[in-house]
C-alpha cells in the first residue's frame, strides 16, 4: 500500500509577515522535494472540508466562533503574541485541521497505509480555548477526538517529538483515559510546561523533558521510555505531532539532532507499535524552522513511513 501526503495550496495564503519563523516556505520546500522525487508510492490528497462539530469536539464552541470572526479583511492581526494572522489564514487554518481528517479516513478506508499531513499553521500549542505559539486549532487533538467519536477507537496514542512541549494537546487530553500523550522536548523552555510530574488524571500523560544540548545518542536513549509506554498502553491508532525543530541547525531551540535521527525515531515508533496498530499511523507537521533541515528531516520521516507499507 501507499503513504498518503495530504497538503493544500491554501497554506500559501497564511501570511505571517516578514521575518516570522513560521513562514510559507516551510511547507513549500517539503512539497517541492517530494514532487521532484515523484515516488509512485506517495498518494497526494487535498484536505476535506471540516465541519464545526468535528472541531468543537476538541475546542470550546465559543473559541471556535471567536477564531472564525478574528481573521482580518486586510493586513495583519494577532491571536497571541506569536500567532499572526492575515486574511488568507482562515482557509489555511481550517484546511490544516481538515488534512488530519482526510488522512484518518484514508487509513481507515485502506486508501493508503499511513499518512503525513504537510500543512500549516501548526497546532500543538493551542488548547481548548486559546491560540498560542503559532498555533490556532490543535490539528492532532481534532484527529484524536475524531478517531474516538467517529471510529469508536478506545486507545489512541499521540507522540509529539517537536522540540517544544505540546502543552495544548496535553491540556485537551489531561482527563482522558482513552488517549496517551507522549512528548519529548527541551526543558525548561517555551512554553514552560512539560515536567515529568505532569502525568494526567489517568496517568495518561508521559513527558520526557530533556536539557538544551541533547544529542542524538542521548535523545534516542530517552526515546526508549516513550516506546516502553507505548508497549504498555497498546494503542490501536497512533498520531504523530512531527516537529523537526530538534535538528542541530534549527534557530529556535538547542537540541543537536541530525536529519537521520528523524528516520530512526519514526522507524522505531512503527516497529514498536505495529503489533497493536497494524501500522495505522497519521503524522502532521508541527515545528521546524531551518528550511533545509526541515526539508531533509521531513523526507527521512516519510521514508520510514514508506518503508512500512
Report what the structure shows.
The chain is of the alpha/beta class. The protein has nine helices and ten strands. It has a single domain, classed as Histone deacetylase domain (Arginase, Chain A), CATH 3.40.800. The strands form two sheets. It has an eight-stranded parallel sheet, with helices on both faces. Strands 3-4 form a two-stranded antiparallel ribbon. α8 links the parallel β9 and β10. The chain is globular, with a radius of gyration of 17 Å. The N and C termini lie close together (5 Å). The relative contact order is 0.16. The model has no long low-confidence stretch (mean pLDDT 98).
In short:
With 309 residues, the chain is an alpha/beta fold.
Instruction: Report on the biggest sheet.
Output: 8 strands, parallel
Order of helices and strands: EHEHHEEHEHEHEEHEHEH
What portion of residues is helical? 25-40%
Mean pLDDT across residues:
98
Class computed from helices, strands and strand pairing: alpha/beta
**What Rg, in angstroms, do the CA atoms define?**
17 Å
CATH superfamily: Histone deacetylase domain
Number of strands: 10
Give the low-pLDDT segments.
Answer: none
User: Which fold name fills CATH's third level, the topology?
Assistant: Arginase, Chain A
